[in-house]
């Protein structure tokens, strides 16, 4: 058995996690002004460089707004956040992600998958579609939930690639932490075989070049996850 090297979080990472957790827990509400870099550095016993670089990263994640000569404020991340914000929220809430957030994520995935499968049926070559079979086999052969989820993501990402739409693969990659977390939850509740069945259904539809059947396949799976027998709430 081979063990992986353990490493501690850097001061910057610990700083980011602490500020982000204070924001997400509501202890630092939207619009509130943070103390100065000097004061935060003094209280947390870190350098101002750590605070400054941490602020920059939290601004990229959509949690802070830095206004020159005015200060640093908690951003309205729910309104103006980005995919990094969503990933951070997923990490913070873990299995407690709310029904509203899950519903929104699934509906976005539905739209993307419909777009991808419609395009594949119209534009992709037979070779591209048959190339999905190896990824399908990886899902079937996976021994653990983690392996099943990663193989399933590879299948869906390949779908997005062969769709011919250059933007869909970028969106899929951005959503990877969110989608894989939901798939893990799904497998823990219903088994990894259920996830394989959904991939197999899509592959058969693509092989038969049946766009309507692919849409029905996607809708059935996602509707089951939202309000049917395979709910993930």
TrEMBL record:
Keywords: DNA-binding, Transcription, Transcription regulation. SMART domains: HTH_GNTR (SM00345). Residues 9-77 form the HTH gntR-type domain. The keyword Transcription regulation applies. PROSITE patterns: HTH_GNTR. GO terms for molecular function: DNA binding; DNA-binding transcription factor activity. Coiled coil: none annotated. It holds the Pfam family GntR. The keyword DNA-binding applies. PANTHER family: TRANSCRIPTIONAL REGULATOR, GNTR FAMILY (PTHR43537), UXU OPERON TRANSCRIPTIONAL REGULATOR (PTHR43537:SF5). This is GntR family transcriptional regulator.
């Amino acid at each position: 058995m081979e063990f992986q090297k353990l490493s501690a979080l850097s001061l910057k990472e610990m700083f980011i996690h602490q500020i982000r957790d204070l924001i997400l827990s509501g202890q630092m509400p939207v619009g509130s002004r943070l103390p100065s870099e000097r004061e935060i550095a003094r209280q947390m016993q870190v350098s101002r460089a750590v605070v400054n670089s941490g602020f920059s990263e939290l601004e990229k994640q959509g949690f802070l707004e830095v206004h020159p000569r005015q200060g640093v404020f908690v951003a309205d991340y729910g309104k103006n956040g980005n995919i990094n914000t969503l990933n951070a929220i997923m990490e913070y809430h873990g299995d407690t992600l709310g029904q509203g957030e899950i519903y929104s994520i699934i509906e976005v995935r539905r739209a993307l998958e419909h777009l991808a499968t419609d395009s594949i049926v119209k534009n992709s070559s037979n070779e591209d579609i048959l190339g999905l079979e190896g990824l399908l086999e990886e899902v079937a052969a996976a021994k653990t939930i983690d392996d099943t989820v990663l193989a399933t993501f590879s299948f869906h990402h390949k779908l997005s690639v062969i769709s011919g739409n250059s933007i869909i693969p970028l969106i899929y990659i951005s959503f990877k932490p969110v989608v894989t977390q939901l798939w893990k939850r799904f497998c823990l509740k219903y088994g990894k075989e259920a996830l394989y069945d959904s991939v197999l259904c899509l592959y058969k539809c693509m092989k038969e070049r049946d766009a309507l059947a692919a849409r029905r396949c996607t809708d059935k799976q996602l509707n089951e996850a939202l309000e049917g027998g395979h709910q993930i709430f």
